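Q: Structure tokens for this one, please.
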Amino acid sequence: MVPVYILTGFIDAGKTTAAKDLIYEMQKEDYKKTLLLVCEQGEEEYDYQGLRDIGVTLKYVENESDMQEDLILDLELEVRPERIIVEYNGMWNIDRPKVIWDPEQILEIMIIDTSSFDMYLTNLKAMIADKIRSADLIIFGRCEGAEDKLSMYRRSARALNRNANIVFRNEDGEIRFDPAAHLPYDIDSDVIEIDDDTYAAFYIDSMENPDRYTGKEIRFSGIILNSKNNGEHSFIVGRIAITCCSEDMTVFGFICDTEEENPYITDEWVDITCIMQKEYSEKYEIWHPVCKVKTMRPSSEEHKKIINVT
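A: Here is the predicted structure, written as tokens:
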């Protein structure tokens, strides 16, 4: 199968620059006949002849309705490409390419203009969320001046997509970003205290990096979401998280194991102190954190059942 690289993101996010960088880097390392499909024209233009000189055929797709299997098949028969790069229109349905090509062929790269990310989250939440969920690689570009917000942006993206690689770049190249250095709690404390405002960050980081928390003592409050997860000694505690908008919510819950039979029922609030361990899920083929409960009691305070990721 011919590999297909799809660059998504809104206009002027930097997709054309990213496509050029991708093309020249690939052609330098492994020269192959390439079909470049451009579905959106921003301020930056392509050098048609320059691309032809390095084995790249440029074709434009102006309308979403034209992005059909018949057109793509005709272009593939004409060009006989060994790889395809698509600069996709940010306003088009992100699922359309997956009808044309086998999803196994596709590597989807989302380009985000970091300086405009807050605006997108405010005005185009559902649309940007769809693109983040679908991406295999998420690149935050133009990070100059936004360094203090990168941990929040990373958390927002990770809440929507737990598997994609997330990269931050400025004009000098990739930024080395250590999420552990930006956590809103003390990861090295004897007992890591998690409250309403830090729960989302804790959940996302522990799911992504279970080794970081293995063997550590954690104290947090949560609502029992499933009082009998896998028998009388296992249950799920957590919160409901708004990952995008009020209609877009998901469970941020931990499996909790206890030596005693769980005396609490679904929707009860509890305060938990636990030792975090990790277990392997055969179903999802991932390692995930599990709370081995030391103490548990009814929560004496009011807490937020629904939390915002940001």
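A few notes: The first helix runs from residue 15 to 29. The longest strand covers residues 269-281.
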